[in-house]
């Protein structure tokens, strides 16, 4: 996924190139430099990451889809996020082809709001993902019925993992 990250008036181009299956190690390119990032520890209040040979303690104060305010090693940082490529659909956290919903990025399944046989309206959220302390909602691309769910709450999924199959109406 490609982003523009603005910190203190400086814009950085950031691309998450790859992640391991557990979602703890990432290859990230920032302004044409590659960084290996490892999440050493994380809980609901803080994350400890290793970037190169440096270790950072990060505490997210507030976050939304476009803004994150956090403390990194005692320095308060506001980051404004903007996806460089606009999503083609309003359910951008997943790809949909023929009713098969796949994750666009490695993430943790936080909530599943529908079961097999449930009817969904277009735009209704039925799966919530979390990646790097940010939540993404998987929404029904059209009126449909859930025919299969391939994941469970708490599961870590890779990019491209099939999450669900929907029978589109």
Question: In short, what is this structure?
Answer:
The chain is mainly β. Helix content is 0%, strand content 63%. A hairpin with a 2-residue loop joins β9 (94-97) and β10 (100-103).
Characterization of this structure:
It is a single chain. The protein has 169 residues and is an all-beta fold. The protein folds into two domains: 2-83, Glycoprotein, Type 4 Pilin (2-Layer Sandwich), CATH 3.30.700; 94-168, RNA polymerase II/Efflux pump adaptor protein, barrel-sandwich hybrid domain (OB fold (Dihydrolipoamide Acetyltransferase, E2P)), CATH 2.40.50. 0% of the residues lie in helices and 63% in strands. The chain has no helices and 17 strands. The protein is elongated. 20% of the residues are buried. The model is unreliable at 85-93 (pLDDT under 50).
Sequence of secondary-structure elements: EEEEEEEEEEEEEEEEE
Mean pLDDT: 81
Q: Which value, in Å, is the CA radius of gyration?
A: 17 Å
Oligomeric state, counting identical vs distinct chains: single chain
Number of strands: 17
Kindly give the count of domains.
Answer: 2
The share of residues in helices is: under 10%
Distance between the termini: 30 Å
User: If classified by CATH, what would the architecture of the largest domain be?
Assistant: 2-Layer Sandwich
CATH third-tier fold name of the largest domain: Glycoprotein, Type 4 Pilin
Q: What is the global morphology? A: elongated
Low-confidence stretches: 85-93
Content of β-strand:
over 45%
Secondary-structure content class: mainly beta
């Amino acid at each position: 996924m490609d982003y523009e990250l603005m910190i203190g008036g400086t814009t950085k181009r950031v691309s998450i190139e790859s992640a391991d299956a557990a979602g703890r190690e990432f290859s990230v390119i920032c302004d044409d430099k590659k960084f290996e990032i490892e999440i050493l520890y994380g809980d609901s209040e803080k994350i400890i990451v290793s970037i190169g040979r440096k270790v950072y303690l990060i505490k997210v104060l507030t976050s939304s889809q476009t803004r994150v305010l956090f403390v990194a090693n005692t320095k308060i940082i506001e980051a404004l996020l903007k996806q460089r490529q606009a999503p083609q659909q309003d359910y951008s956290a997943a790809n949909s082809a023929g009713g098969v919903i796949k994750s666009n990025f490695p993430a943790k399944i936080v909530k599943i709001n529908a079961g097999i046989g449930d009817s969904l309206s277009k735009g209704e959220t039925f799966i919530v993902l979390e990646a790097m302390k940010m939540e993404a909602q998987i929404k029904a691309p059209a009126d449909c019925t859930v025919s299969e769910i391939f994941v469970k709450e708490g599961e870590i999924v890779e990019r491209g993992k099939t999450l669900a199959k929907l029978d589109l109406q």
